[in-house]
Structure formats: C-alpha cells, structure tokens
User: What shape does this take?
Amino acid sequence: MRNKPLRFALRPWGAALVLFASVNLAIAQAPDPHQAAATHASALSEADFLAEMPIVLSVSRLPQRLDETRGAVTIIDRDMIRLSGARDVADLLRLVPGFQTSTSFETGAPLASYHGGFDSYSNRIQVLIDGRSVYSPYFIGSVGPGLQTVALADIERIEVLRGSNSAAYGARALLGVINIVTRHTLDTLGLQATLGAGENGVRDGQARIGWGQPDASYRLTVDRRSDDGLAGSNGHNQVDRANLRADVRSGAGDEIGLRAGGLVIEFGKGIAGKIDNALRDAAFKSGYAQVDWRRVLNADEDLAFAYSHSQETYDDSFMYVGPVINSSGRPVLGQALFDASGRSSSDAVSLQHTVRLNSNLRVVWGGEFRHEEVASQGLYNTDSTFVTEFSRLFGNAEWRAARDLIVNAGLMLEHSSVSGDGVSPRLMLNWHVADAQTLRVGVSKALRPPSTFESFSDVRYVSTEGVPQAVSILASGRARPEGLLVRELGYLGAFPKLALDLDVRLFHEQFDGFLRQKNDTRPADYVNGENLSIQGLEYQLKWRAWQGAQLIFNQAFTSINSANEGATLAAPNRASSLTFFQKFPSGLDLSLMHQDTSEFKPHSGGTDSKRTISRTDLRLGVPLRFGSNRGELALVVQNMGSPYTDQRKTFSFERRAFVTLQLEN
Assistant: This one.
C-alpha cells in the first residue's frame, strides 16, 4: 500500500515557486544602481551578512562559507545549546528540519534519525566528534551512544549536513553527517560547575577545570546526568562521562591535539509481563583515545594526520521463563537465557592534504584505514571475533568557475574486507544569483554495505541446561550493499532589510535494494527489499524580529513511497518546530520551543504504534555575578502540554520541570 500524496506541494513546480519567490524578493530588495545615496545602508547590511556568514568545517573537509558548501547545513551554536534547555545532543536535533528523535534508552541511548526511523537503531548517518567517528559497529550500527560522548557544556557548535555525504566520509554518511565541534581549551580556562535537579528524578552534575598557556592548554570535564526515564518504561537511566583534551602548538607551526575519555550508560529496559523482553538492567561502556597533528606548510597548504582507538562493551541479558525443550527433546516449563552482551573496538588512521592550486581552485585529498572488531556469543552463536577493515581514498575540490558560480565535487573510493569495493561521487553547483542569495543544485550516489550483524547474526535462546531453543534472527549472508541516488535543489538567502534568513532544500532520495529486517518468517533475516524513494521539502526561516529576539521556524514535508505501509510512516509527512529566543536588557533569557508532527510510526514501536508529537518547552535564565565570577540560574519546563508517546506505544514523555545552576570564574 502506497502512502497518500502530501497535501503540501512537493512537486518540482511547487518548490520552484518557493525558490522563484525568494529570489524575486531578493531582487526586489537589491538597491537601484542609480541611487547611490540610498544604497549605502543596504551595502553595509550585505557586508555585515557576509562578515557574519558561518564557516563550515565538515561538509567537504574544506573550511567553507555556509553559502558555498555543497549542501544544506544547520548549525546549532553554543548559545542555542544553552538556550534550548536540552540535556543531550539527541534532544537538540529536534531543532533540525527532517530529523526524528527519541528520548528512550530502550536501545541503549536516545536516538536521532534523518528521513525515517526504519529500524530500532540509527545506522544511516555518521556522527563525528572533533573528526572522530563515534558510529558504533555493535548491533546493526548505531549513533545513539556516540551522541552521549561529550557534555553539552564542552560543545562549541554542531554542524548538521542534511543529505548524503559518503563522498567525504564513507558509507556510513549515507543520509547525512552530524559534526560535533568541542570548544578549544583556551576558551575554557578556569573552573566551571553545573547542577540540575527536578521532576522525574532529574539529577545532573558537571565539573570542569581548564589550565595552561597559549602554546599548551588543557581541559578535564566530568559529568553525570540521570533521570527516571519515560513513563511506562523501566527507567532509572544514568550517563557518566569523563573527557580530557589537550591542545599544543609548537614553534615549527605544528598543532597537536590529544583527546581521551570514557562513557558509562546504565539503563533499565524491557516490558513488564513480557517473557521475551523481561525487565532488566543493562549497560553500555566505551573509552577512546585520539591524537591529531596538523602542519601548516604555507598560507595555502597544510597536512593533517589523525589516529584514534575506541572500544565498547555492552551488557544485556535476561532469563526467559516459559516452555522450553529439555535435553530429552521434550517440552517442559523451564528457563532459557537471552544474552546480547559483547564487545567491539575500532582503530582508525587518516592522512589528508589540503592545498590551494590557484586563486580559483582548492583541493583536499587523502586516505583512511579503519579496523573494526565485534564479538558476542549471544548475537553470533560463536566465540569468534568478526573483523571488518575499510580502506578509503577521497578527494574533494572547490572550483570557482565564474565570479558567481562555485563547483563542489567529491569522490570516495572505499573497500570493505567483507563487502568489496564501492564508489561514492557527489557534485554540487552553488550559484550566487544576487547579493546574499544562493541557489544550489546537486546529485550524489552512495553505498552502505551490511553491518556485521546484518551479515552474520545468529541470535538464539539457550536453556539453563545448555539446550538451544528458538532462533530469533539468523542472517543468511545474502544481503548486498544498499545504494542511494540523491538529487537536490536548494536555496540559501538573507534579507537584511527584513532581518530574515531562509534555507530551503528540495530532495529526492532513491534507494536501490533498501536493506531491512525480514520478519514475516522465523527466524528473521536481513534482505535487500524494494527500491523505495523518499522525497520532500524542508526549510528553516530565521527572523531577528526586534532587539534581542530571534524566531526560528522549521518545517519538513516528507513522502516515503513504499509498498510497505510501515515504511511509508517511518517519518511524519509533516513536522514543524517554532523556537523563540528573547534576551532582555536586564540579561534575563526567555526561550519557548514548540514541536508538532503528523502521524508516523517508528519501526521499533510495533504494528500499532502510530503516534504524533506535540511538545512545548519553556526556559527562563537569570544571569548571576559574584565579583569576577559569573553564572546562571535557569528554570526549564519540558513538554508543558499533554504526554506524548515516545518510541513504544506504552512509553510516554510527561512534563519535566527542573532547575539548573551554573557557576564559573
């Protein structure tokens, strides 16, 4: 059954009308060249706009102005993070058009997905923290635990590329990239502490110390966030983190960055009364070390080297109580163990060279080697360790073909020791049609090979007598890489006279052999299904309405064409959010955020878990001063309205009110 067409115009002529109207509004704003006196003020406004244009670091691996990147990028800066009242990165991504998020810990950590939650984990987007991939190779692949790696107080900004970027970051960037950039250690010298407490068992604490000099500076941050989880769930969730960063600059022009940290997530999961998903406690633990080296060869050229090691352990098991087969082959009432515990690790090394060849051409190229190991007796029915190695060669070029036309091209050659070779190209044209007005048109192709679990899983229950019971998942190994072809049209414009910024993306994403779990027979298997497509329109409008105020309005209209009814509802047809920030002359901060969606159905929720989201958050922050020390006292109320269903039909997000106190010197 195919989904009904959207009532909102998603056809090319409808999007073209939006872009045409925006460009005409820009032209209408453009000053008359015969009125020199009248142009002075608007020229200053345009200059101010260009001066304030954010620099994006992650899209093409080249530092680029936002209007020159090869795709639609949403930037969440440090001020927005603070004003949002969010307690983790996943909750922040509600502010990004096209994203769906969950606060549930049922799958190990809150999740965020782009253009559809097709499975219990989010495995089609890449998450980077200071350039290091935190994509977990465990299960079918997930970004949930990675989003919990660092404290919000240590984040400078989050760059979210809405669209495929495998040409720069490989197969796991199939639908997009979330790049988390932490603050430089020189910006966090001194002491800082934060406490939070409130309803639903919210108990948060964080402490940070920074020290050093301009040529060598350091930061250590430890924090904990805990609460009682969603109503109806087996709550009591706790996240503990420690992160160390060092930045060293040598006289030879070398920049060295050292990072290390650990994460422990302890959470309850399971459903009361379900013998095949019993109530239990589970834990995810990870640790990492990372070294980055960069040498500036001259004003137009540099080299960068990076190495990182990550390791993870997952503890999750429960005892099934019910009919089992005993050693004599007879059915009896007994117990069987389900155990999803295991470990994984990854090592990655990369080298890249960035050079400006002439005034119109910049190039970055390099390579990466990645070694991953996964082991779990419970998930694979073997004590063997599964090893996957990725070898990648990439190149990206920015060519100023004309004064107002930029060509961004990229290519990734990737070899997987399990799935073979893959090629991922990307091409984007950026046309500055007028001052502060840019049209984008692009196309990209990408491949995502099956994960270790999708290729080799063998999940079964074993009785306490050691007798194998039912097999729930048995991968046949026949799954091949899923392909994706993306066509997109975009617009980015600023209207200084109106204090407006507008970002529009029209997209069509065509999957070839969409990889999914086949559940209509037992045991379940992973197969390449239909060639489903996703099309839609998303936009973000920012309006600096008056002094100290900002309004941000996001909307995403998404249509998933599939013969599977569940897949058509993997993302809401319509999702909207409205955010209002007001800073008063006294220093008081007011934030109001409202999120609203049409009906959708996350895959992990079952066949009858259609839901909508309507959530309104409030935050009031009061600045504090104690001599040279400063801080803030804030009240946050999340979901001031009725509870809404989150992930499962029996889980709901109820109102949470809590207070935070932050002090620093």
